[in-house]
Amino acid sequence: MKKRTYRNPVGVSRFTGLLLISPFIAGFLIFTLYPFVCSFVLGLTDYNGNTTPEFTGFENYINLIKSEDFRNAVKVTLKYAVILVPAKLIFSLFTAVILSLEIKGMGFFRTAFYIPSILGANLSVVIMWQYLFTSKGLVNQFLELIGASPVSWYGSPDKAIFIIILLRLWEFGSTMIIFLTSLKNIPKELYDAAKVDGCGSIRAFFSITLPQLRGVIFVNLILQIISAFQEFNAPYMITSGGPLKSTYTLGMLIYDEMFRYNEIGAANAVSWLLFMIIAAAVAVMYIVSGWIKRRDEK
Amino acid sequence: MKTKIFKAAVCLCALSLSACGKKQNSITMPDGKLDKCSLRFSWWGGDDRHEATLEAIKLWNTLHPEIEIIPEYGGWDGWTEKAASQIAGNTEPDIMQINYDWLVSLSPEGDGFYDLSLLSDNSEHHAFLDLSGFDEETLSFGIRRGNLNAVTVSLSGRGLFYNSDVYEIVGAEYPETWDELLALGEKFGKKNLYPLDLDIQSGGTAWYLAVVYVQQKTGKEFITMNGELGFTQEDIKEALDFYKRLEDNHVIRTISARTDEDGNAALYESPEFIGGNVAGVLEWGSSVGKYESVLDENVLEAGPFLTGENGSSGGWMVKPSMLYAISKNTSHPDEAAAFMNFLLNNEECAVILGTSRGIPASSYAENALEKSGRLSGLAKENDDLLEQLDTVTISPYMELSRMKEICNTAIESVSYGTSDTASAAKQMYEEINAYLERVRK
After folding, report:
1. Rounded CA gap, A32 and A29, in Å?
2. I need a labelling partner for B378 at 20 to 30 A (CA). Which of A1, A15, A249, B261 fits?
3. Domain check: are B289 and B426 in the same one?
């Protein structure tokens, strides 16, 4: 039988591959690398958008590190990320485990739990949050109903951050969906075998489910860390960074420097510092994850 | 290879930065003709202003169907940020309602907006912008570094407005002196109500009233027109002490209580104001409509401007409540000038706009309003009361966002008790001086 040959329609030049990925490369250069490099260069200037940028070296970075606003924003962002990320992962995983049970009508709940993730921190959600957490809001009314003291959610610098955290926790749908998909991929035989050996469901969760989900937990962890460090919308819309700047995140600092104060150089410097903080946090996670993996393999 | 990539990156950035430093080389010069075109016009405000302005645009469209006006409008919150990014990106509307401090922040060299003198006083051809209805002082507010960047729409000052129903229930008279205001707290407190509200949001009325108090007492200006700090550290402390007394005497809500009750909502959207628990507001005469419209008709009334023990009435401030400017990037300066002239001077338009932007600064518009019987309402009452006082013109430097932030932060720390007034005043004094030195450059 005659062997059929196929001809590459775009030729066999060594540039063929390059040609095929050129739309991506062009997009990457124009929309990612170019703004990335420009942002770094702008961070080294004194520039307000209306005058010619003046090169000032690392002055913006030095001023920022000295500034109380920046140090406070770093603290707030870290506090926010440290509380939110584990809480969201645990809550999403817990809900995903329940929703993975083969019970009739579970599809409805899967959809219902995902809806808040679509809403984000938009105006209607902000209004709803105000109805919930202001002094005469539903949450305080409920607390009074059960005999507890009402809580100063918006007015207290210690509690205001929890309004933001609760909003993002409520939007756990995307993380949950990733867990749910992975839970479905765990071979059933593992649970059957464990059951035969007399293993209870809690032990099965810790000995089978969690180790099987290790990879996806790590992915979710990294995604959540990046998103938590970049938080802007929720504090901007719900608390305006207050009270006493207790919800003033690095994202808000970038916005204020850029748009309220026209300090474009300083805003870009904060963006780069935020980028370095996120990179460091992700690097630590990789190191810890590698260490855990090696320990388990021993 | 690495060296080449680095060199390429540096060249690229240098190119982009030279583009950022957009020195104004080429503006479209007026030609004295009106051509067919579309123009974008932006403003901020409440619903009353939006409705009136849209109505005025309808009238323009019937008079000049060849020049279409595309409206862009919204609330004040976030408006400065939006405008600043549009201007930095050269995508701003052709005609803009601008705030007083934008002349300093967005046109530091006086070339951030179109030079309107080219459109109002042109010997070569017809000029569409008529400024004969404005006095010299009013026009001077729009001049930046010798260029006429904007024209004042109206002059306005913040006045005190009270919910007359609540005052009647409590059995209180509107205060006339600072001491009477401080004494009101006790009477209102018995019913768990407040005679006034002050905020540290974008309006920053808390610091504003404290400044008026000290200006009246000392005769000094908080910040001069040249951007110098007129208050001493002691004056700032006195202003903060006064604010604290207002809170301690139950005249206003503490910031914590206010935030707890209203969340992030503006006062005119707050159930506390609409429901009458808070019975007074300090607001610009040109913007009081949004508070008036959420209460029953004629419930909100203008109160007297507070005076000192010896009857001194100085210290109250006025400013151009807003100005109109034309984009330096517009391709249709004649058409934009014609529309701006319509907004400022046209009699029919003036009647439609009413006092939605305060009492018009143009004598043509003011006369038209007077003839039509529409020169009335809270804005007019406030304006009349202000005219009897020895007012101070607000420095545009006082309106800058970072300046407001410094003042609001100090007020907040005093309210929460995280700083005493002496240390808050010290920090504020140092920060303001450092900031003013930087912006004056």
Report:
1. 6
2. B261
3. yes
